[in-house]
Amino acid sequence: MAAADELTFHEFEEATNLLAETPDAATTSRSDQPISQGHVAVAVGSGDSYGAEDEVEEESDKAALLQKQQQQQQPGFWTFSYYQSFFDVDTSQVLDRIKGSLLPRPGHNFVRHYLRNRPDLYGPFWICATLAFVLAITGNLTLVLAQRRDPSIHYSPQFHKVTVAGISIYCYAWLVPLALWGFLRWRKGVRERVGPYTFLETVCVYGYSLFVFIPMVVLWLIPVPWLQWLFGALALGLSAAGLVFTLWPVVREDTRLVAAVLLATVVLLHALLAMGCKLYFFQSLPPEHVTPPHQAASLPTNIPLSPTLPRSMAPS
């Protein structure tokens, strides 16, 4: 304590001597130094805050500009570039989704395990196109093989089957998912716990479910009726099972009656598609293409036939 008082006395004495030598000099007390340092600190701090605010404003401006550019670059649904993103899929992803549709398993949701919020239209489009052409070609080949076994069958190329197959397959692959999606959306308004898939996810599920019908149609070239129906039942079971396993997590939150009727309708429509393809494109003996056997005109045996002579031997 005494040392501190002595130090303060010496400082006061030095200040007195300095003031005596220079009477016009301004004096600053020790208490003024923290105030000045405080002012400096405040000035520096305020400068940093201004810089941080400028950076935040700059980042927000960049984000707003980027969002505006994305909105300007996003095409409308009526343009081709809008649908181009749905065809941006790798071959490995398409093969993996085809494998998942061929091997359905209970509790293995096709949408969650294979689509993963990235539905595509590339696979469903080419699956439907391939199925339509295979149906038309194998339907014509069936008549060709039948003509070789039975020459009485008259075959002519049936190009209209390509149109019929294309319209039937594409309408089924688009209209049925549209109706199903609309019904589930309506049920979501009735029961809040029902959460349907998106329309593109529903189309994607139906498109990949039709792949199993392609090898089935090729195997239908075997001219054994019971074997054809067996192949059709196996393909229908695999395809319908994939649809039921995928739709069950959505419809199980609804009432049991609605869930049962909806799943039964899905399976029934699938069965009608398979049976329609079998009965229309693989008719074993179409009546309009069968020529009746040649029947010789029968004459009475008691009427003698008049002999005819060559013109050169006839009497003049």
TrEMBL record:
Span list, region Disordered: 15-38, 293-316
Name of the protein in its database record: Protein YIPF
Alphabetic keyword roster: Membrane, Transmembrane, Transmembrane helix
Species this chain originates from: Saguinus oedipus (Cotton-top tamarin)
UniProt keyword Chloroplast present: no
All residue ranges annotated as the Yip1 domain in the record: 102-274
Family of this protein: Belongs to the YIP1 family.
Main location: Golgi
Pfam families per the UniProt record, alphabetical: Yip1
Its membrane topology: Multi-pass membrane protein
Compositional bias annotation for Polar residues: 25-36
Segments traversing the membrane: 121-144, 164-184, 205-223, 229-250, 257-281
Subcellular location: Golgi apparatus membrane; Golgi apparatus, cis-Golgi network membrane; Golgi apparatus, trans-Golgi network membrane; Late endosome membrane
